Amino acid sequence: MAPLTVVLVHGAFAESASWSGVVERLLGAGVPVVATPNPLRSVVTDAENVRRATEAVDGPVLLVGHSYGGSVITQAAVDNPGVVGLVYVAAFAPDEGEDVLGLTGQFPGSTLGETVRSYPLGDGSHDLVVDRALFPQQFAADVPVAAAAVQAVTQRPVRDVALGEAQPAGTPAWRSLPSWFVFGDADRNIPVTGLRFMAQRAEPVSVTELPGASHSVMVSRPDEVTAVILQAVEHLTR
What are the alphabetically sorted keywords of the record (predicted)? Predict the structure, then answer.
């Protein structure tokens, strides 16, 4: 039987290399892993890209999503027999009809909107980026400044339509699959009260809250994030 593979999905204003520390640790533990690109164009099309990535894997898949990537894995896992579990890393776990913007605004505390810059696209929508000068403080306050500056200039823009796109109709995958949640209590993008709310209603196997960790928790705290993923791998393969 093929081993379980971890498929990592980055979120908005990030890219696949943001998982580098986690990837190194998973490979060191002998766990197969793929950090798949996320186009950040719309929930439906991004989820379809991730679904195709899971179908290319030989064996079961543990999907891991960061931030907006949580919305993507929630949809990509629906009616996807290859996916056996979900890990949400400072991530959205929307219910049917919910969207990223709505969940962010439902709870006070996010300062992300003040730092986002908009660029028009040809179809009437816009690409959004976090102001590169403000990115370290907003997105990665506990990451060394030089490393956060690299994150700022390598961030992938997200299309505004994606953030306002509701989770498609139907039962979200976290209601039927085992899930794990890990996030920091110093997240300036998604209010920690919102992260706790989404985690609690999912009734996950475990919730790990990291004191002082920023939204970029997989970069600043790769040991702890990897530990949660390994817990999930062990749970799903024993």
Answer: Hydrolase
Residue whose pair of structure tokens reads 């892993």 in the numeric block = 33
- Give the number of domains in the chain: 1
Q: What is the CATH number of the domain that holds 176?
A: 3.40.50.1820
> Are residues 74 and 51 in contact, defined by beta-carbon separation less than 8 angstroms?
no
State the average pLDDT over residues 44-61: 97
Quote the domain boundaries for residue 174: 5-237
Query: Per-residue pLDDT tens for 135-181?
Result: 999 999 999 999 999 999 999 999 999 999 999 888 999 999 999 99
d(CA 160, CA 13): 12
Percentages helix, strand, coil for the chain, rounded to the nearest 5?
A: 40, 20, 40
Q: Which amino acid is at 54?
A: T
